[in-house]
Here is the input.
Amino acid sequence: MLNDRYSLAFKLYPYERSSDQDAAQPVRHPVVIVGGGPIGIATALDLGQQGIPVLVLDDHEGIGMGSRAICFAKRTLEIADRYGCGRPMVEKGVVWNLGKVFHEDRQIYDFNLLPEAGHKYPAFINLQQPYFERFMVERVRELQATGTPIEIRGKNRLDAIEVRDDHVVLDIMTPEGPYRIEADWLIGCDGASSPLRGMMGLDFEGRVFQDSFLIADIRMHNDDFPTERWFWFEPTHGAGASTLLHKQPDDVWRVDFQIGWNVDRKEEMKEENIRRRLDAFLGEGLGYDIVWSSIYTFQCRRMKQFRHGRVLFAGDSAHQVAPFGARGANSGMQDVDNLGWKLGLVLKGQAPESLMDSYDTERCFAADENILNSSRSTDFITPKSKISHTFRNAVLQLAEKHAFARPLVNSGRLSLPCVYDNGPLNGEDALPEAPARTRPGAPCPDAPLADGFVLDRLGGDFVLLTIDADAPEQLDVGGIALRRVKLSVNDDATGALAERYLGGATSAVLLIRPDQHVAARWAAFDESAVRRAVGHACGKE
Amino acid sequence: MDLILTPNITDPDGFYARLIAAHDGLSDEESAALNARLILVLANQIGNAAVLEQALALAQVGK
Here is the structure.
């Protein structure tokens, strides 16, 4: 009746009977989330911390085995920080800066990421997905203990839904039989093969890549390998058409072999065959244990719309990308970042329901950007035609001696948050001397302050960020309390604040959305302009 | 004037994707002919004989 589809790394939410199962009438919840993966739990953290009761349903009792997504980018860590669980992720995660690129068996060049200074969080970390999820569930437990209205129900499988104009009816199966609840809003975070999407008969179209990759997570007996990312194009050992090696916590290394499309999965997954590839790659005589292995294929596709009335889709259920560039889980976290505050305002009656259409517009735009970037990496790593292969190898040959060819080498680009250019909520850009990186639609870059960081000060509500400009400390705009964050260029001796937010301007007033994206900016405070921009950012016109 | 050997393409990923897309659906002969035309167009843009000579020599060395 309720069979596990996978084994668990951590059993964190065992089945418990809910009073909803004994209610005479279906109980109505403001928000139900289907899927207790990273995106579902993040959504619960976002809404729960706004005081909105949220119920998460998961058909398992905890977090699935396997490292899976292992690269978590800065923006994801910043979002997690806002939820109160960024720090343990960074403490557990591995930071690397040096990458090496090989062609055949020669190292053709190396690069240092030289991440920009003055950020609270690193450009990204490597961390096994189960840890990432566990830190978030642990944060849920902490918040629950202080009364935050989040509930996670394990072994609660959604079996059928009925979508009405202003709510959704859910039929749920448990080990003790079925029951029914209702939700004002339903959020589908149930992964790439989303059963919810299937139940609603919705599209999910895109491009299938005819290739497969074998992942082997290995624990080295001797930890002699440096903490670097190594990418091989066409190694002559033949273990894979390309091979990627990088480090995770717990002395575990991820090895990714590109093994082609027509492979016998069962045969390839036998330990002796995985070891044959690993030994060819690492050299004989190196001791290691295989911690986890998997074969994956991939697609780049998305739903045409992420909003279907009172049903919203987020993360892999809405869009899927090739893994190169780590745009899967990272883009899902940005979905949550975008969705959470909007749904919060709608549920509190502070914004019209149509605000949710901007979730669809902004995150479809972001999904297209992510699909474009990951498709380009995939096409470089696994060329689809003879001429594409010829060009790819010409780039690699030239890159060995000539710096000009190196920007063309694409083994996965760093996942960066989307700038919502021309986004429906963007207001005025009345500060032409200021840098493009903080234009309306852009996520706020961090910068150091004497006693912390800019993003710490922004938090998760509407903020009026003033840099050497006057403004009232508080402004009530249609029930939204706009809070001033008062900064001066003198607060940052490194000059990063001025460089990132002012450029050639001498003062700035920025309206910042709760997801820390810039909504509008001016040189000085103008109350009517600010009121207009807040209204516009809430979808009120 | 010397051949530029530092990165100089504004949007490398975009350019590369456009270059590969231009070959979509072409036979090997058609692709070779497209490359030939493209080289001649770019050579005309460069114009300078010394620079063209350096580019040719670099490509001939191969790596």
Q: What stands out?
A: The interface with chain B takes residues 373, 376, 379-380, 385-388, 391, 395, 397-398, 400-404, 406-408, 410, 413 of chain A (CB under 8 Å). Residues 436-537 of chain A form a domain with the Glutaredoxin fold (CATH 3.40.30.120). The first helix of chain A runs from residue 38 to 49.
